[in-house]
Trigger factor
Amino acid sequence: MQVSVESTSALERRMTVGVSVERIETEVNKRLQQTARRAKVPGFRPGKVPMSVIRQRYEDAARQEALGDLIQATFYEAVVEQKLNPVGSPAVEPKSFEKGKDLEYVATFEVFPEFEVGGFDGIAIERLQAEVADADLDNMLDILRKQNTRFEAAERAAENGDQLTIDFVGKIDGEAFAGGSAKGTQLVLGSGRMIPGFEDALVGVKAGEERVITPTFPEDYQNLDLAGKTAEFTVSVSAVAAPQLPELNDDFFALFGVKEGGLEGFRAEVRKNMERELRQAIKSKVKNQVMEGLLAANPVEVPKALIGNEVNRLRVQAVQQFGGNIKPDQLPAELFEEQAKRRVVLGLIVAEVVKQFDLKPDDARVREMIQEMASAYQEPEQVVAWYYKNDQQMNEVRSVVLEEQVVDTVLQKANVTDKSVSYEEAVKPVEAPQAA
């Protein structure tokens, strides 16, 4: 087998492969012999058909099959011989394809980039330090109570925070408009659900009252036909209900799966959940900084084939997330290319760190992660058992643990400073980073 390789760009290779006629004929004859054992030809017993007849009937098909298999086999033999790491399938162009002659073809393909990850000491990491204070816990209990607010009929004028049940008809210049009318709508005053001025104008109404209000649509309103226009709404109020926060009692605690221990038991359970959320938030922010630092310190040229594959995955995810009748390939590739490139580059860098430092998923950390995830459920032992019986889920956990070990490896070499912050600041989401 003759092989020559030409670099047509940083990652593209053009490989010419020559296969001897002897190897071709050996493969063709092998297939003809296999065919002869099972061929059914009128006038001959099975397995007794002369090879001359077999050749006449089946040689063309056997040759096509042999050539296809030889191209596939010799391509992989050649890339191993040349120590190449191809991305995806090659584009194959036959140069010499005549019977009785050597086969020569050209395979064009991309290769994975070869690089070493470095620049660790130039990566600056700010690692947050925080704890769950009693005030944070009290605030969380208030949030949980507000999330379970009940509304009860109130025989008084409406205040901010009250829930109104209303019918309304909206008009602009005396004409009704699409989406401007509704019946039986429940609206919490001060929620900001309606356009500016709508809810404010209903403060003070009572059940059974009708009020005409004239709010103005914002200039940047999504419906350009309504943007900046003043509308007249006739609003009929059928009910006013005041918010009632639930008491911190056993019935309330049971909503969250806490059936014993009273208030102290409930506070302990909420604190445990907050501490878990805090650990995850701090870990996530450190990981984001590490990944950003690795990207900045290690510019990597990416194979187009990998970006294309990632674009297709993102298309499928978008369709699954947002639904509709659109097919993934109908979504423009440009919408996903930057995100796809970023993900591919990070994947290559992380894989190279794993390789450079010979990292393997730590079994103890895998189990610890599964136990922490399971602790959020009422039957944690069953959740742990489920993970260990599910190979796909276990592989996903191992991948996450391996990424954490990559982060730890970088932290040992990076410039890390600790910063004390409040619980609220530590768990506050950060804006998504721009695509690389």
